[in-house]
């Protein structure tokens, strides 16, 4: 397939490069690279010593823009870190020593350990000199390869040369990025081995060497081999591989089971048996493979099946490792692929199915082909493939030759000679448009919606919690509609017809697929499950909203139903739910019943009824929720997202910076409760867009945020004064202990803007400038998290 892939890529690049597919300007890359090297090139680093090295190399208290800041965060006209690959993530410890700004203490992770400790300035300088020395040794070692064609460089020798020169730091992402800036013709912009391997297998190439630098040479060789790129500088050629995100690859053997793989294609899922083993949804919540294996073995023992079987091993892998975005292939024997697809959902249990353990899969082609290397020991097992297995490159190549390119390559499908071959889809009742045309399944969900749907698949009920104004109800409504549109109608919410929308919300007398209720102190079991209500002649037993939804979901088991419970924490939850606490548990769905005390009817909660609750943490912490309820719900925290306000502003301060500054002050003044009492971004987004004028922002502050802050501070004027920067000319008057309402009058816009921005410090502005669009708002350079950054 390699020749076919080369031909397709050549034609694609020739047709789209510079049109829909655009690479950076090489002049701009060179300008920014030169700017970096002028400050931190090998010659400059070699001259530094003592206090200058402490100031210029690591994060420190006296220099806001040392080399480590440039490599990871600097983003302005002088230098954009993302153009040369991202190494974001982890802590400052990944660079070696650094100095805390507040305390002035030098900190470092001791070599060979994980703990971060205080060190002396002398020890910090010694470590930095050793780091600088290895870096310069690596630069000098690579000079011997500079100017050579990649095809004449031995990749393994190239790798060994770097490792010998820098035994401690050669595997670090920051050193790789530095060497890329010095030698862009030898070292690519990928930050980790997994990204480099992905760059190769996505184009049908098997990663042949171990080590990031050896893979650099293989990557450069590949892109150099495409004639259509011959006129581009080397540093631009390998950038055609941008956006090739690493993913896992799996094979499922189905020798002699033609009906099984046809059923999987028709119903767009991957399915495993045995049917006698019940739902493993509870095992999903376990983190360790050992615990999951034990849960699977227990389930097999309960079903009187052998625990050492291939099926048991399959289900352990299925539950533990198979995740959304993975590429899966069905094989009829050790070397014959019959279909390839992408996992689009998480584990679900299909009661009554022959293979009830399932995940949703979007099958992209079923054009049979032979692998270049068979999978040894392969039978009817589910096998995870290492990125270096030749079958991985074969599977990815099969996508390209069938017209399926990466998401980052626009218009790729139009260039393929052979369209993908897929069986006609079995359309769920109501899934076709009014024209009767069959529609492709919608693309996978992303972001918060994907996370919440995964939680719903696992637990069947989830609570969205967070401070006010963080979009909890908005997300609940949106996600519920996504679930119903995709599952019940096989389309996106925007593609629903008017008739289908009426069905979703029960307009026209049908049972709704989505219903909403709001808990409050007077809400009762009778409102929720069943109770007696006057009917003009006496009292009649009436079902509550939940019982109505249960009845409807049982009558339409192929459909999904969603109940949204707004303000779930404001009700007396144990009293409202009653015996439902047991019945909503995933493992009890559809199998366990309870006798309702009023109607004396057996009551079972169907598996296709999902519950989404919303909870305002300004009212109540999740720690105060009933323990039994917490065990049965998944929880998704929603915090303020200031980056959504970047396009708005108050004078010369971005609205995102202003909200971060306000929330920082709230957290500082309110202590342990501050996280739950922040101000959400939605307050400042009337109509879904950032407030556009100072007058509108003023109205929001006066009419919505001011009462909220008064409540938070229990009318403590000192806390209000500190939050609203009273001593720096803010909108709070310490003398009157009240808001300066005169600032909000027409004609005082400039004065109001000045008073509002008094809460913003230079550090707030600096932090907002450092914070990239793809980084979380609470990124802290001095706290350890992931060890290795990702590629941009």
Tally of strands = 24
Give the overall pLDDT as a whole number. Answer: 86
Low-confidence stretches: 417-439, 772-792
What is the radius of gyration?
A: 30 Å
Strand content: 5-15%
Principal-axes geometry comes out as: globular
Determine the fraction of residues in helical runs and give it as a percent range.
25-40%
Structural class: alpha+beta
Largest sheet: 8 strands, mixed
Distance between the termini: 29 Å
Work out the helix count. 29
Keywords:
792 residues; alpha+beta; eight-stranded mixed β-sheet; five-stranded parallel β-sheet; 38% helix; disordered C terminus
Written description of the protein model:
- The chain has 792 residues and is α+β, with helices and mostly antiparallel strands.
- It is built from 29 helices and 24 strands.
- A hairpin with a 7-residue loop joins β8 and β9.
- α6 (121-142) packs antiparallel against α7 (155-165), α7 runs antiparallel to α10 and α17 (447-459) crosses α18.
- Mean pLDDT is 86; it is low at 417-439 and 772-792.
Compact overview of the structure:
With 792 residues, this protein is of the alpha+beta class. It contains 29 helices and 24 strands. Strands 4, 5, 6, 7, 8, 9, 10 and 11 form an eight-stranded mixed sheet that branches.
């Amino acid at each position: 397939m390699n020749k076919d892939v080369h031909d397709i890529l050549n034609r694609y690049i020739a047709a789209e490069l510079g049109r829909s597919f655009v690479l950076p300007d090489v002049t701009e890359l060179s300008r920014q690279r030169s700017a970096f090297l002028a400050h931190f090139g090998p010659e400059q680093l070699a001259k530094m010593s003592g206090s200058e090295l402490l100031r210029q190399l690591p994060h420190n208290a006296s220099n806001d823009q040392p080399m480590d800041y440039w490599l990871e965060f600097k983003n302005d006209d002088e230098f954009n870190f993302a153009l040369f690959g991202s190494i974001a993530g982890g802590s400052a410890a990944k660079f070696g020593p650094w100095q805390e700004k507040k305390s002035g203490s030098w900190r470092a992770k001791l070599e060979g350990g994980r703990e971060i400790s205080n060190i002396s300035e002398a020890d910090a300088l010694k470590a930095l000199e050793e780091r600088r020395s290895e870096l310069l040794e690596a630069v000098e070692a690579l000079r011997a390869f500079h100017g050579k064609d990649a095809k004449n460089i031995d990749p393994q020798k190239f790798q060994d040369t770097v490792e010998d020169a820098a035994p401690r730091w050669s595997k670090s992402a920051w050193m790789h990025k530095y060497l890329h800036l010095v030698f862009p013709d030898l070292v690519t912009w990928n930050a980790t081995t997994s990204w480099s391997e992905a760059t190769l297998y996505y184009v049908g190439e098997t990663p042949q060497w171990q080590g990031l630098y050896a893979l650099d040479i293989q990557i450069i060789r590949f892109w150099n081999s495409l004639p259509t790129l011959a006129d581009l500088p080397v540093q631009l050629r390998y950038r055609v591989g941008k956006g090739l995100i690493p993913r896992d690859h799996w094979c499922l053997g189905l020798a002699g089971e033609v009906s099984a793989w046809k059923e999987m294609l028709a119903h767009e899922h991957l399915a495993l048996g045995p049917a006698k083993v019940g739902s493993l949804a509870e095992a999903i919540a376990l983190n360790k493979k050992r615990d999951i294996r034990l849960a699977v073995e227990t389930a097999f023992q309960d079903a009187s099946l052998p625990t050492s079987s291939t099926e048991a091993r399959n289900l352990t892998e299925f539950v533990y490792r198979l995740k959304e975005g993975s590429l899966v292939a069905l094989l009829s024997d050790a070397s014959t692929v019959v279909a390839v697809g992408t996992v689009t959902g998480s584990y679900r249990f299909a009661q009554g199915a022959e293979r009830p353990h399932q995940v949703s899969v979007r099958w992209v082609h079923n054009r049979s082909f032979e692998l270049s290397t068979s999978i040894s020991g392969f039978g009817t097992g589910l096998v995870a493939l290492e990125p270096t297995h030749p079958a991985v490159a074969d599977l990815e190549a099969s996508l390209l030759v069938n017209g399926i390119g990466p998401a980052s390559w626009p218009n790729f499908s139009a260039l393929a000679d052979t369209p993908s071959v897929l069986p006609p889809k079995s359309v769920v009742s109501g899934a076709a448009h009014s024209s009767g045309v069959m529609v492709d399944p919608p693309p996978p969900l992303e972001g918060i919606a994907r996370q919440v749907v995964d939680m719903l698949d696992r637990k069947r009920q989830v609570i969205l919690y967070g401070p006010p104004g963080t979009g909890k109800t908005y997300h609940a409504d949106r996600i519920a509609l996504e679930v119903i549109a995709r599952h019940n109608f096989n389309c996106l919410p925007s593609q629903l017809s008017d008739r289908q929308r009426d069905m979703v919300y029960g307009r026209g007398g049908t049972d709704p697929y989505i219903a909403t209720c709001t808990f409050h102190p007077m809400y009762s079991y009778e409102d929720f499950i069943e109770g007696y209500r006057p009917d003009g002649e006496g009292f009649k037993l009436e079902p509550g909203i939940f019982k109505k939804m249960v009845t409807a979901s049982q009558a339409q088991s192929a459909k999904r139903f969603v109940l949204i419970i707004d303000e779930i924490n404001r009700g007396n939850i144990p009293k409202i739910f009653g015996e439902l606490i047991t019945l909503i548990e995933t493992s009890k769905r559809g199998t366990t019943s309870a006798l309702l005390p009023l109607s004396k009817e057996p009551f079972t909660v169907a598996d296709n009824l999902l519950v989404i609750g919303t909870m305002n943490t300004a009212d109540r912490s999740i720690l105060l929720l009933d323990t039994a309820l917490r065990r049965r719900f998944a929880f998704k925290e929603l915090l303020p997202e200031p980056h959504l306000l970047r396009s708005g502003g108050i004078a010369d301060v971005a609205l995102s910076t202003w909200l971060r500054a306000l929330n920082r002050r709230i957290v500082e003044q309110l202590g342990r409760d501050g996280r739950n009492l922040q101000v959400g971004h939605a307050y400042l987004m009337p109509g879904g867009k950032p407030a556009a004028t100072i007058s509108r922002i003023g109205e929001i502050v006066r009419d919505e945020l001011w009462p909220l802050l008064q409540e938070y501070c229990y009318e403590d004027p000192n806390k209000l004064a500190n939050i609203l920067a009273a001593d720096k000319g803010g909108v709070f008057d310490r003398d009157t202990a009240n808001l300066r309402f005169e600032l909000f009058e027409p004609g005082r816009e400039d004065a109001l803007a000045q008073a509002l921005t008094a809460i913003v410090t230079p550090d707030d502005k600096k932090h907002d400038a450092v914070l990239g669009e793809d980084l979380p708002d609470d990124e802290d350079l001095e706290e350890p998290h992931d060890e290795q950054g990702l590629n941009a």
